[in-house]
Write the structure tokens for this entry.
Amino acid sequence: MSWITTLLNNLNYGTILFLMLLESTVIPVPSELVVAPAAYRAATGDLDVLLVVLFATIGADLGASINYFVALYVGRPVIYKFANSKWGKMCLLNQKKVEKSERYFDNHGIIATLTGRLVPGIRHLISIPAGLARMNYWKFLLYTTIGAGAWHGILAAMGWYLHTAVGDVSDEELKNIIGQYNHYIVGGILIIVALIVCYFIASSYRKRKK
């Protein structure tokens, strides 16, 4: 998708919002290659890092809301049919991925809409089972905002740090460096998610015991 590459090479608040909207639907746009480079540019003075996180999170909310309402109104059969279609495959989507997000939602409950925003492979699909389960929209939006905001904040911090650590580099070099750091970020995020889930499980257990 050359037009996505063009947008990635011309990051501003509008393109950040739009790309994160796409990333939160079913279009394969890696948020790491949007928010981190935008924050890197913010460190040079071209953008404001807080506005980068804000517009990225608004975009994620809009995209997640699209998934939520589509799932709410069209139902599981249509979702699966699209996932297995040629268009679904073009979006790197299939039924197994949708089912994986549903299992994650079923296993973790409504808190999955928060923690799921931090899990690779689940992040952009977790809004589908929320819609299928008819989760309260405003609660869904709150958890999505917190999760997406946390994820974008981490990516923005990485982008800002990279400018401090490596100085001025080309866009291609920056993408390679982000790819190297991304493995450590994903590992750290998964640990954070596990801790959050354990906290909510423990809190739920205490409430039931009382």
